[in-house]
Amino acid sequence: MFSPRGPSLRELAVQALSSVEDGYDLLAPKFDHTPFRTPGSVLDATAEALRPLGPFGRGLDVCCGTGAGLRVLDPLCGEQITGVDFSAGMLAQARGARPDVAWVRADVRELPFREEFGLAVSFGALGHFLPAERPALFAGVHRALLPGGLFAFPLSAPQPVTSRWYWMLLAFDLAMRARNTVRRPPFVMYYRTQPLHPILDELAAAGFAVGTAPLPALGRRPGGGPLCCLVLARKAG
């Protein structure tokens, strides 16, 4: 799963026993050589689905990490792109690769923007927020968007109980909950806390008009439905 340039098991263990912020600061120099970086296939499928809805002006990558989301924002946004994350280490890696982007360190539950962006995206970040924290995140993104602005992020369909991924993700979440029971500060990262319909309801409560678009390029479930969809949340105006 890891390239030779990726972290060792010891480094991953140290990260897992740290806080979320400290853990990503430690992992940052090798993050792009791990399977945790959003795959190019997901980014390309997202860009393809968003292309007919653009072009957009200024773009925002929420929980940007080392900047993978630029692969989506670059071709769609004709103005300044901004990435926001709370890990100084991840931002340092992103800034080194793309000094032309505005990299901002902030807690995304308290985004420091108001009506600035036409498009906001996020990749692989929702698992870092407990369900009770998502309303603050969504309200901040809503506030950061211009009237008519769009917030988009991919979301995987639930794995069937017969899938090995179902049991792998369940085991990971149980291990993380056990870790957070006995150690502080917690490391919040859960894969099974992101059901589609509650998230759509939370986005609607934040003031968005919500919908989804399938991402068929990422595969289909045995019943024919897409393995992944793109959540589309539009600010009124």
UniProtKB/TrEMBL annotation:
GO terms for MF: methyltransferase activity
Keywords tagged on the record: Methyltransferase, Transferase
Residue intervals of the Methyltransferase domain: 60-149
Listed transmembrane segments: none
Pfam families per UniProt: Methyltransf_25
Example of a GO biological process term: methylation
Stated name of the protein: Class I SAM-dependent methyltransferase
Lineage: Bacteria, Bacillati, Actinomycetota, Actinomycetes, Streptosporangiales
